[in-house]
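anyone seen this seq b4? input:
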Amino acid sequence: MPHTDNQALHYRPKPSTLRKYSKFHRTFSSFNSKDFSHCGGGSWTGKRDSSKNLRSYTIPELEKMGFTYVPYEPGRNVLFSDSQTRIVGGLVDGIPGEEWKLIKEDASASLRNALNIGADTGAFLKKDLKHRRGQYFSLLTGVSMGGGQKRPGNLAQRLRSRSAFYFLAPKLYRRYAHDLGRLYESQPELCWNFDSSIYPCVAFNCGPQSVTTLHFDQSNLSHGLCAVTPLGNFDWKKGGHLVLWELKLVLEFPPGTVALLPSAAVRHCNTPIQKGEERMSITQFAAGGLFRWVAYGMKSAKEVGSVKASDGQTLKEKADKCAEERWMEGLSLFSTTTSLEQDYRTD
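predicted toks r here
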């Protein structure tokens, strides 16, 4: 597939589709997303998490701490809004019907097979089972930036998934399409994972129990949204809930639903599932370093740090802006509960 042929770059839902799927149940938090964790400087990525609290929490523990419990209702989509009515994420139900059920089963079987093959061939080692996000095996694929990379590079590919991104955050979605479209156009060797997803990177969390401990995804775009789809065979009434720490929300999170969350800014985890159950997940995301690379004119921070513009500022300083300016600019890309309908129409 040619690198510029990703349908997601030009995605705009039909008015009839908007009317059908953009009706959301609203769950409000008293937290102001302006105070979300983010790094200094250009605020391209999340703040490095030095916490050693590598654990998950049970429902009784969370309820004692004042978390709001959000039950799942078939066909109901939920959006998360902060104290300023900014929509900072949501939980979107899967497509009703037998076809989506088969897709979920096929995806679960694929991850189960990947786990078995990885174990049999030695691709998965015992040391790979334990990491800062939990105790499960994970496969990473796509285009990423960070960790000392000189320029964006492909990590691999395969599989398809849909996203509710546009319905929750149309302005932010269009920023992804603009910046990532420029990135892929500038480097023909880069390949999209799927021709129907705006996300450049995906993690296949193969289990056997993909239950995350409390963490930030600090390398992701600071104000970006990642998409998480749980799979497998587990009682989602008893475990596997999605916990959003700063928002003080705990949500029932059945297989096949899609959660959109600002994973670099909000600590999140899952509640434990029961012994003998299996849970896998697919997480799609974008590294903050990719957006920084585009803003720097397809150059590294080192390359633009010494190049001065006519006003005396370096190109890096102009792109990074003032300490909090870029962070607030990022927050402005979140719709509010009152602006969402208008934001769909603004291009």
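The radius of gyration is 20 Å. The chain has a mean pLDDT of 84. kinda curious what u guys think
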